[in-house]
Design goal:
about 475 residues; Immunoglobulin-like; 29 strands; TTHA1013/TTHA0281-like; alpha+beta; 5-stranded mixed beta sheet
Length: about 475
């Protein structure tokens, strides 16, 4: 029994030592990393120099030849592999030789460029033991070589100096998101000191134009507004100046509309005693006209699609032509949950206030119909003129309790003919400012679409991509 127990303890101890060794190997690696400068390209003619995991475009043959790069050393990869490296600034002929360059002057000595210094590789064994290739040596002028500060000689047993970076939180690889608010959390390990001494740089391909120094922050947030493919890169750097040569990365897709947050949900009114009086507003905050016909509005209970509407609301309304609902810059749409009092979706105009005599629209239609000028009715009796002067804008006259007006047939004829939507439309529809900037859309709901207490409303375009969301 004691022997069995001892064997069991020995097995556990061996496994523990193996685990420690494997973790050490993961952190420190079998051989310490040394920088290598590679020339890479995809299927296009563009050639890049790869330095510390970042590709830099070499814009012209003059720059290529200035550094005495060799065309035969260009490595060709698939476009997806090339795109997998974050893009840095273009390489310039005034730049230093890239990290990892193997340089030789007029003599036989070969040097590795690391942190801007040249490190002598003392013998072939050290050269080959560090997996360098002889064909990658660049012959330069001796004076240019001596202008580079000299560092320590290279050895076969280099200690690890380069940090490693890991992404702890954020989208999963190739995840499709429908919300532009994205947060990443990351960390790093530092072989030359405390992990807390690391600084971080981030780069979001498809959004950023260069690496952004985050200092010692371990998170980065984005408010993305354009749908498409993105790749997030993060790399750590220690106080000694060594970068993680293989930045951590994750690719994801923002499945949002090209109109994301250009049309926004606002002013959600969800607590009416009758749910058919609930409404919300949409506003075009972009700088272009946007067609929202066929878009959908979803709550926790239902999804509804926007149909067409009448832009020029002729009378009778059945004669109007339905068109796409197009929101110009600054236009809004009031989306009501109930049934249209007049059975139509429409664009308001300077006469539509006549349609809301009984406050059947919620919210009420604006009432700023054109006023008559005195010369249009100064031929009528004084009593009739006084009656007209007391009318509110867009008010259809009710003279049922006014006997003086009732018996004045000329007055009643003028009132009935003039103060109504049909006549107002006929008189003013050709005005440049006749049409207003507010559409009225009705969803004809038979159940409560907007929860009284809390809900998330999602607006999607015709392709089903998210335009905006509103939570309350």
């Amino acid at each position: 029994m004691q022997q069995t127990k001892a064997i069991f303890i020995l097995i556990i101890l061996v496994l523990f030592l193996i685990l420690i060794a494997s973790n050490q190997a993961k952190v420190w690696g079998g051989d310490a990393y040394l920088p290598k400068a590679d020339l890479i390209k995809g299927s296009t003619p563009q050639v890049y120099i790869l330095e510390n995991g970042v590709r830099h475009w070499i814009p012209d043959p003059e720059t290529f030849d200035h550094f005495r790069f060799k065309w035969q050393n260009i490595k060709t990869y698939s476009n997806s592999v090339v795109a997998g490296y974050p893009l840095g600034e273009d390489w310039d002929k005034y730049d230093d030789y890239p990290e990892g360059s193997l340089l030789r002057g007029s003599g036989s000595a070969v040097y590795l460029i690391e942190l801007g210094k040249r490190r002598w590789i003392p013998n072939p064994a050290t050269f080959e033991g560090n997996n360098f290739g002889w064909r990658y040596i660049i012959d330069i002028d001796q004076d240019d070589l001596e202008n580079i500060d000299q560092g320590d000689n290279l050895t076969l047993s280099e200690s690890n100096r380069y940090p490693e970076t890991a992404i702890l939180g954020g989208p999963n690889q190739n995840e499709i998101l429908d919300n532009g608010r994205v947060e990443f959390r990351y960390t790093g390990t530092n072989p030359l000191g405390e992990n807390s001494e690391l600084d971080f740089e981030t780069y979001l391909a498809g959004h950023d134009t260069d690496w952004i120094n985050q200092g010692a922050d371990y998170t980065e947030e984005y408010g993305l507004e354009e749908g498409g493919q993105y790749t997030f890169f993060v790399r750590s750097k220690n106080e000694q100046g060594y970068y993680d040569p293989s930045p951590a990365s994750v690719s994801f897709q923002l499945g949002v509309s090209a109109y994301y947050q250009k049309v926004e949900i606002s002013n959600v009114n969800a607590k009416e005693s009758n749910f058919t009086d609930d409404y919300l507003e949409l506003r075009n905050d972009g700088d272009e006209t946007i067609n929202i016909t066929g878009w959908t509005l979803s709550s926790d209970t239902e999804t509804k699609t926007f149909s067409k509407a009448i832009k020029r609301l002729k009378y009778p309304f059945s004669s109007g032509t339905e068109v796409n609902i197009e929101l110009a810059d600054g236009d809004q749409a009031v989306v009501s949950m109930g049934v249209s009092p007049d059975g139509i979706n429409f664009l308001t105009n300077k006469c539509t206030g006549y349609l809301d005599q009984s406050d059947q629209y919620d919210p009420s239609l604006d009432e700023h119909c054109p006023d008559l000028i005195n010369s249009e009715y100064d031929h009528l009796s004084n009593a009739c003129q006084s009656f007209i002067n007391n009318l509110s804008s867009c008010e259809i006259p009710d003279y049922s309790d006014d006997l003086v007006i009732i018996i004045d047939s000329e007055c009643t004829g003028f009132l009935n003919e003039t103060f109504n939507y049909g006549q107002c439309y006929s008189d003013y529809y050709q005005d440049i400012d006749f049409l207003e900037d507010e559409w009225r859309i009705f969803l004809n709901m038979s159940i409560d679409f907007l929860d009284d207490d809390n809900d998330t409303i999602i607006l999607k375009d015709k392709s089903g991509l998210v335009v905006d969301r509103y939570s309350y």
